[in-house]
Fold this protein.
Amino acid sequence: MNYNLTSKLPDVGTTIFTVMSQLALQNDAVNLGQGFPDFMMSEELVELVDEAMKRGDNQYVHMNGLPLLRERIAEKVARLYATTINPDTDITITPGGTYAIYTALTTILQPGDEVIIFEPAYDSYIPNVVINGATPVLVPLSFPDYSIPWQEVRKRINSRTRMIMLNTPHNPTGSVLSATDIEELRSIVTGTNILILSDEVYEHLIFDGLDHQSILRFPDLLERSFVCFSFGKTYHCTGWKLGYCISAPDLMKDFRKVHQFNCFSCHTPSQVGIANYLSNETAYLALGAIMQKKRDYFGELMKATPFKPLPSYGSYFQCYSYAGLTNENDRELAIRITKEYKVASIPVSVFYQNGNDNNVLRFCFAKKEQTLSDAVERLSRIRF
Ligand code: PMP
Ligand code: GLN
């Protein structure tokens, strides 16, 4: 049939996460590709949600999110980042971090606007900008440390620049922003009307004693920012698809106009359960150490393979270089390893619009030790 369709995303295929997870399933491979934990989440939190459902907390909550949950988030932000957030005007609960990012971009962007995006970039960012008629301005992170080349950013700023998108800890590379990066950012945006989108879904997954440089710490930056979070990452329940966005009241007012006609309100029992669980500080404060242990366990085992690690200071991920080992591109290699050695990973070139291939694969270490050791045992058999 001729639908006379004009695709809004003509250049977009199926996300690599689905592609590699499907390939892993078909090949009975250990899946270190898509980022999700394979260990059980907190039973206490499951029970809190279960109790909420049984008690009858099953109808719509306020479109901005359960008031108690927003209050608890504001308390957490005050404790962690010493910033006062108004739960009525500054926080909206969303069905996941991805949705929060999409909604923020849709709220702000007009055709012709430019958005600075660093590559490798999480796969939803560029399509989210394009679908809103705006133009992504791509700045490659320096390789191999994946730091932001601020001089380059300065060169790319002009009167059309509407937003800079940040992600710390960073997916796919595990790099994190430092206090110096925040200073650079501040010196670029101060006195302009450039907004910031800060994707902080891995806020607690930060290692080696480093501090998470949340935009929430800096009121002068927060007043021009949308800061996006995911309960899926914090509580090992990526399938719940629940998160939130924090912003300044005037920005949040418009964010909510978009949100109310797209999602309106999120899953009620999960919001009740998480609101009651948020007082358990250990549940999130211990996360960095738990995940660092997994990174180190995986890293030790990987020494038995020819892959060379690139540093990971946060997130679920560690990148490995195979430069010099084979001429295969990273996509071909990731597919071959999934099929022949039964371990799925993610080729990092997919996070570059121009397919820039540094011969790097991303592995997710948010897994049980057994899963990691099974995977590495298979990877150690690889012959190039
Ligand atoms: N941003 C980044 C960088 C991510 O890795 C993820 C994880 N999936 C998200 C956003 C979205 O999280 P959610 O599953 O809550 O939509
Ligand atoms: N954020 C996860 C990753 O990077 C996957 C989420 C998704 O599949 N969209 O692997």
User: Anything to note?
Assistant: The mean pLDDT is 97.
